[in-house]
Amino acid sequence: MPGVGQASAAITVVNALPTGVGCAIGIELFARAEVTVRPVASAAGGTWNVPADARTPLVEEALRTALDRFFPRATVEATLSLRSEIPAGRGLKSSSAVASAVLGAVARSAEATVSAVDLARLSAAVGRRAGTSATGAFDDALAGLRPGFVVTDNLHDTVLREGAVDPEYEVALLVPPTTHRPSPEWAAAFRAQADDGTRAVQAAREGRWWDAMDRNTELVERVMGYRYSDLRHDLRRRGAVASGVSGLGPALATVAPGRRIEEVLDLLPSDSGERLRVPLRRSSEPSGGDRP
């Protein structure tokens, strides 16, 4: 039976590496997975058909996890196709989105009902096992499945707070061409910044996500060596509500009212990377087994 799953990118409000608590906001760049799962009679076990350019450890782990969860004790043939418009390795949560999309597609194929929170928990487990995330990035996965900001304890995969973001806001992205090493390689350096991370977490838990985003990016820039401080101050003068490094970067995300977003985009250096205008995630359309 065919199934389709979709999840979006997200931008970081609070990086979870220093404290285990993260906060993120979904944006409308999407990963989409389509899968067909058929029962087969084979003593050798089931088979996977995944295009070579999509067959990564993350995708394989997501597909394995999904089949074990939604087709237990069944021998099946799974054929997967995957499309993503999210720049990979730039801090925009492409790994979480891809994992969630694959999981959701298999859930749909099984006609299973699974909540966004449970799908995000599965996605976080996949990220940990595949080695793409030190914490599992539960906040990123959940933000990629419904609108608003989410604050989560990524050590226990629990939701601490959710809240709406003004629908008039949009995001201006600066996406440099470089990529970063996986987050497990940076975990120790960020844990050493736990005190500053705690202050960003407190702001997020109080609903002041814009303040949390500013505090977080000061920490991330210090650890990663980015030099966005002067640009961020200029962006604030142009009407930005908040701006900061997303994930481990190098992407810089700036939130501003839609009427000011073109001014903000014009301020981003065109020789430093691609500039994108992206809406915040607007709706909780079903992803995977959810029903409207």
Structure description:
With 292 residues, the chain is of the alpha+beta class. The protein folds into two domains: 2-163, Ribosomal Protein S5, domain 2 (2-Layer Sandwich), CATH 3.30.230.10; 169-279, 2-Layer Sandwich (Alpha-Beta Plaits). Helix content is 34%, strand content 27%. The protein is built from nine helices and ten strands. It has helices spanning 57-70, 94-109, 116-130, 138-143, 187-191, 194-205, 209-224, 229-237, 261-267; strands at 2-14, 21-39, 47-49, 76-84, 149-153, 158-163, 169-175, 242-245, 252-257, 274-279. Strands 1, 2, 3, 4, 5 and 6 form a six-stranded mixed sheet that branches. The protein has a four-stranded antiparallel sheet with strand order 8-9-7-10. The protein is globular, with a radius of gyration of 19 Å.
- The assigned structural class equals alpha+beta
The name CATH uses for the topology of the largest domain is Ribosomal Protein S5, domain 2
Residue ranges: pLDDT <50 for 5 or more in a row? 286-292
Taken as a percent bin, the fraction of beta residues is: 25-35%
Helix amount: 25-40%
Backbone shape: globular
Give a short synopsis of this structure:
This protein is α+β, with helices and mostly antiparallel strands.
List the helices and strands and how they pair.
Elements: E1 2-14, E2 21-39, E3 47-49, H1 57-70, E4 76-84, H2 94-109, H3 116-130, H4 138-143, E5 149-153, E6 158-163, E7 169-175, H5 187-191, H6 194-205, H7 209-224, H8 229-237, E8 242-245, E9 252-257, H9 261-267, E10 274-279
Parallel strand pairs: 3-4
Antiparallel strand pairs: 1-2, 2-4, 2-5, 5-6, 7-9, 7-10, 8-9
Helix pairs in contact: 1-2, 1-3, 2-3, 6-7
